Amino acid sequence: MNDLTPISDVAIPKIGCGDLPVLRERGQREVFCGLTGIVWLHRRIQDAFFLVVGSRTCAHLIQSAAGVMIFAEPRFATAIIEERDLAGLADANDELDRIVDQLIERRPDIKLLFLVGSCPSEVIKLDLSRAALRLSKRYTPALRVLSYSGSGIETTFTEGEDACLAALVPELPASPAQSLMVVGTLADVVEDQFRRLFAEMGITNVGFLPPRRAADMPPVGKGTKYILAQPFLAGTAVALDHRGATRIAAPFPLGAEGTALWFKAAGRAFDIAKSKIDDVLAKPVARARAALMRQRAVLEGRTIFFFPDSQLEIPLARFLSRELGMVLSEVGTPFLHREHLAEELALMPADVQLSEGQDVEKQLDRCRAAAPDIVVCGLGLANPLEAQGMTTKWSIELVFSPVQGFEQAGDLAELFARPLRRRALLKV
Ligand code: SF4
Asked: Would 165 be classed as within a structural domain?
């Protein structure tokens, strides 16, 4: 972090993202499937229900990733495809209709139902989009039924959210009005902070996708400018472009710098005066920088290695290197969306080792050789690496936690500092 440079003066260097070399690998990968997105999506859309059409493995994955909620009525479940279905002895559509009928009878509070495809539903070629149309007709207007795939054949980890939001876009109401749409799941507290700052800047017609409630879907049309809050929403962006909306290019709102540049890009898109934007951002930027200074003592000069998992890796690496002085050993990402990440790549150190895709054994060898102070990886790799003496951070935690925005910048840094402090205590 450069303490002396006002963030309002930080300019994104004009280098092409193609200038950074990228190691591309297409081998065995260790990544969760897209069902995982249900864990944070069901918390966000509070009157939605996610019905996975899958196997006991799928049910187990969701329950262990989300934690079993004993006291609350859960808002996700798995319709188990039994062997009879797989063998074609039962009509899976009839079974699905019966399960949905039971669910809606018991839970009339559900306003939006997602049928979520899985590997088994793909294997038996169950057409969930047709099932969703059929069920939507049956329950309209009380309930909307949509479908998307979270299958491990088609999606990894955060691609499930992308598929879910892309399924929502055709359902958004049409409006030609000038509006800003923030796209990507955010914690409610982060949405409230962002709304307040946009309002202070003078931008009041702001919608969030996904919204907290199904009835609050943001309108879209030629007057809509959207800004991504998450870097893994390629399909959703294409769907919004088709509805006439325009993307605002920006880095992602992680850390004081990333959040400031994100707000500045939105402000510029709505012709807000630079002095006004700077005034609004000055105090939150100062608070975020003060919080980061406390963590910098732990993190500065420490090396970090990212395995590809959530697609948040590049914005996180940018934040950790520029604002906390961490040294990047390797930054792996499952997919590198050059257009959406152009502003991020322009802020990365010129000598950074980027990798896209995975050949897990080769990457593990590189990680062991680099011997980083901390490794960011999926749950499947964390335990073996910890057993080999490495300090790890689960990438899934970085997606679950409220980390975007100024007020969360210190908490985000703390997520990396804590494992290092714990390891230091264990060594004493
Ligand atoms: S969707 Fe596929 S990869 Fe994901 S839990 Fe189910 S079977 Fe496993």
From this structure: no
Write the CA distances from 231 to 126, 251, 318, 340, 344, integer angstroms. Answer: 30, 9, 13, 7, 10
What pLDDT was estimated at residue 85? 64
Which CATH number is 311's domain given? 3.40.50.1980
| Cα–Cα distance for residue pair 132/144, rounded to 1 Å | 8
Nearest ligand 1 atom, CA 152: 3
State what percent of residues in the chain have pLDDT above 90.
77
The model's pLDDT over 31-84, given as tens digits with 9 standing for 90+, comes to: 789 999 998 999 999 999 999 999 999 998 888 777 654 445 678 889 888 766
78 lines ligand 1 (CB under 6 A): no
Cβ of 185 less than 6 Å from ligand 1: no
Smallest CA separation from ligand 1 atom 6, residue: 58
Residues 85, 242: Cα–Cα separation, whole Å: 37
Query: Is the sign of the CA dihedral 298, 409, 227, 33 positive or negative?
Result: positive
Is 174 part of any domain?
no
Span from the CA of 119 to the centroid of ligand 1 (angstroms): 5
* Ligand 1 nearest atom to the CA of residue 61, by list position: 5
* 140 and 234 housed in the same domain: no
Number of domains forming the structure of the chain: 3
* 181 Cβ contact partners less than 8 Å away, ≥ 6 residues apart: 206, 207, 208, 209, 218, 220, 224, 225, 226, 227, 240, 245
What is the pLDDT of the chain when averaged over all its residues?
Answer: 91
Shared domain for 65 and 183, answered yes or no, is no
Whether residue 414 is found in the same domain as residue 327: yes
Ligand 1 atom nearest to 151, measured from its CA: 1
How far apart CA 295 and CA 316 sit, in angstroms, is 15
Owning domain of residue 334? 7-30+289-427
Q: Is residue 293 part of a domain?
A: yes
Q: Do 91 and 202 fall within a single domain?
A: no
Domain presence at residue 402: yes
> How far is 83 from 56, CA to CA, in rounded Å?
11
57 CB less than 6 Å from ligand 1?
yes
